[in-house]
Design brief:
Elements: E1 8-12, H1 16-28, E2 32-36, H2 39-49, E3 53-57, H3 65-74, E4 80-85, H4 90-98, E5 103-106, H5 111-125, E6 132-135, E7 138-141, E8 146-149, E9 152-153, H6 158-169, H7 177-185, H8 194-206, E10 215-218, E11 222-225
Parallel strand pairs: 1-2, 1-3, 3-4, 4-5
Antiparallel strand pairs: 6-7, 7-8, 8-9, 10-11
């Protein structure tokens, strides 16, 4: 699980259902998201929002995705562009890449693949954004896969690292067991929900959170990280 706090994505598509689907999914992953329904509003949004990644539909009325891409790149915006199109034609891909597009996906596509491509673009163009994040006494270094608490590096298993990363990035929010299982263990996890309790107990021990003031149990709802 990457640290994506503060990473801005611009979604441009003239199909409201696609925009809504992508926006909900990417916001739930922790990204800051802005949407635009056409090319003109996309240019305005890019100027105001300064996205790190722009996901552009090619086939739009008026100013199409190719022209938006060309305009963004010509203006010198430090944005990585992923083109989306219903066409799977080599000529379209070549055209987009020549105009400065950084990646290309054909519809229909899986959300997981798009997410992977977004992370690939961020690693390539904005690697510093995925390396360190600071939340109160926590410092999360994704490159080294280390979490420090009060300047002490915690000895964590891979799953403990993923769980604590997810909870710290979402501090102040009550996270249900079902949501934690989905985000940390994966939607296809077939085990028992009680495994979350086991890992929470282990994290509390390693954080010396004996009074459960850092990782709080919200009865009947889940868990919440409260930063001092």
């Amino acid at each position: 699980m990457k640290s994506v706090q503060g990473i801005r994505l611009l979604l441009v598509d003239d199909e409201p259902t696609i925009l809504q689907f992508l926006e909900l999914g990417l916001v739930s992953e922790g990204f800051e998201v802005k949407t635009a329904h056409d090319g003109i509003s996309a240019i305005t949004a890019a100027r105001e929002f300064e996205p790190h990644v722009a996901i552009l539909d090619v086939m739009m009325p008026g100013m199409d995705g190719f022209e938006v891409c060309r305009t963004l790149k010509k203006a010198g915006y430090p944005v990585s562009v992923i083109m989306l199109t219903a066409k799977d034609e080599v000529d379209d891909r070549v055209k987009g890449l020549k105009l400065g597009a950084d990646d290309y996906m054909s519809k229909p596509f899986s959300f997981d693949e798009l997410l992977a491509r977004i992370h690939a673009r961020l690693r390539n163009q904005f690697p510093q954004l995925l390396e360190e994040a600071v939340h109160g006494p926590f410092k999360l270094d994704d490159r080294r896969r280390e979490i420090s608490y009060q300047d002490r590096v915690l000895e964590l298993s891979p799953t403990e690292y993923e769980l604590l990363t997810y909870m710290v990035h979402n501090h102040g929010i009550v996270l249900s067991k079902a949501l934690i299982l989905d985000k940390v263990w994966g939607y296809d996890f077939a085990g028992e929900e009680n495994i979350v309790e086991v890992y929470i107990r282990s994290l509390r021990e390693k954080l010396q959170d004996r009074e459960h003031r850092l990782i709080r149990t919200v009865r009947g709802a889940g868990y919440r990280v409260d930063l001092p």
